[in-house]
Amino acid sequence: IISNIPDISGNPGILFLDFLQDNESRRQVLSPAEGHEGITITIGQEHPLQELRDSSVIMGNYMLGGRPIGMIAIFGPTRMNYRRVLGQFEYFTNGLNKLLQELFESQDSSE
Questions:
Q1: Roughly how many angstroms between the first and final C-alpha of the chain, as a whole number?
Q2: Partners of residue 70 on adjacent β-strands
Q3: Whole-model pTM above 0.85?
C-alpha cells in the first residue's frame, strides 16, 4: 500500500489512492443501496473511512428494472461548488437511469 512509504504517509491524496487500491473499502463505499434512490453526500469527517475524511463523496445509484445495479460517485475536495456539482450529477444520473430503463424495456419487448 502506498501510504506505507514514510515520506508520503498521511498525505490526503495518498490516503485516497490507498482507498482506490483496497477492494473491500471500495465495495463498502460504492455498493448500491437497496431501497435508496436518492443522492448521498458525505463531507470530510462525516465519512466512516479514514482515507476519505479529507474529501467529499457524492454518490447515487443507477437503476435497472426499479432495482439498484450500480453506484456512481464523485470524489472531490470538501470545499467545492456543491450546487453546480449536484446539478450536473443529478442530470447525469437521471439521464443514465432513463437510458437504462429504455434499453431494459426494449429488450423485454423484443423477447
A1: 48
A2: 62
A3: no
